[in-house]
Predict the structure of cysteine desulfurase.
Amino acid sequence: MKRNDFPILTETMNDEPFIYFDSAATSLTPEPVVNAIRDYYRNVNTNVHRGVYTLAAQATEHYEAVRQQTADFIHADKANEIIFTSGTTAGLNQVARGWGDLNVHAGDEIVVTLMEHHSNLVPWQQLAQRQHAVLKVIGITADGQLDWSAFQAALSHQTKVVAVTAVSNVLGTRNPITKIAAAAHAVNAAVVVDAAQAVAHFPIDVQAWNADFIAFSAHKMFGPTGVGVLYGKTERLQEMAPTQFGGEMIEDVTQQTATFKAAPLGFEAGTPNIAGVYGLGAAIDYLAQIGYEAIQTQEHKLDQALKAALDQPDVTVYGSNNPFAHTGVFSFNLTGIHPHDVATALDQQGVAVRAGHHCAEPLTEALGVHATVRASVGFYNTIDECARFGHAIQATRRFFA
Ligand code: PMP
């Protein structure tokens, strides 16, 4: 399925056909996206929102068209609710600083989950420390789901923010965002969703989720690195202050003071990643062409095949027993073999996986380990690759036995 668009997939690695099972870290970039970035540098290469000459106007027009395209992509009401960032991390930090500092005060509570990536945990820790607020971390059940009763019990009128990942980058667990947002809104808390691991697998629907802020990265949805999206509801963006100051975000500047533009430009100080935004637009087009339905059909098959491949003695898979609860992400360990040794042995057999705590150290600790091996797939992977991965795991077990 469209594998030809990803030249890396036809490479060999260590004399073996290359199997890319690290899409949760970054997805591969198809030719149309690479071409869009090249086209910008070859044929446009001007700054946005500044020059009046034709080529600069063309760049601005395209940049703003991608903003509208992004709004449509996630069903946002208005293009002005879309802020271009450098990625999920930047978006989440912007909310924690720009909105959090103004709206979270001493004694207020911030609720996150044990599933959070560090980029949706540490900014809230820092906010809690700055404001003398309380950070509550909601645990998970034995099968890797959010502990719903603990979550409900944690909510109160002190809760100002609920920050949650749509999909765990370690377990693949998909969180019920609509339900979480409804419960959080019942106590007037703002809902911040880390959609980094969702966007390659299923649609982000701002209307259905009803979240206040949503952050994601282009490089996890077949787009380039260094560009991402922060969605904010208009009324929430009005409550947020800029965290970066400089060119193009100001309205008027005197020697001593300045006033700032409203969203989105007030939150995009300096020259943005214009080529990245061209690439993001091409990635959205690409996703539309493939279609989330086709992606999900293929990924269900891959999830099942990965579960079968890992169904071996001495293999512990973390999270649910249901393969479809993994959203393309399987974290596992081989008894008695260090995860980094497993990853190295797999690399020797052409398989790229990640080993470590996956920027979710508290979760890894809660699983009772220091690290796991993580295999994560995209729609471009095949059932045959899953089977070959299973054989590579067998060979790894034999090698270390
Ligand atoms: N959240 C999750 C769940 C992630 O998987 C990642 C990427 N590993 C991030 C946030 C951070 O994304 P980025 O590095 O693109 O800012």
Summary: Residues 87-89, 117, 119-120, 165, 169, 194, 196-197, 217, 219, 359 surround 4'-deoxy-4'-aminopyridoxal-5'-phosphate (CB under 6 Å).
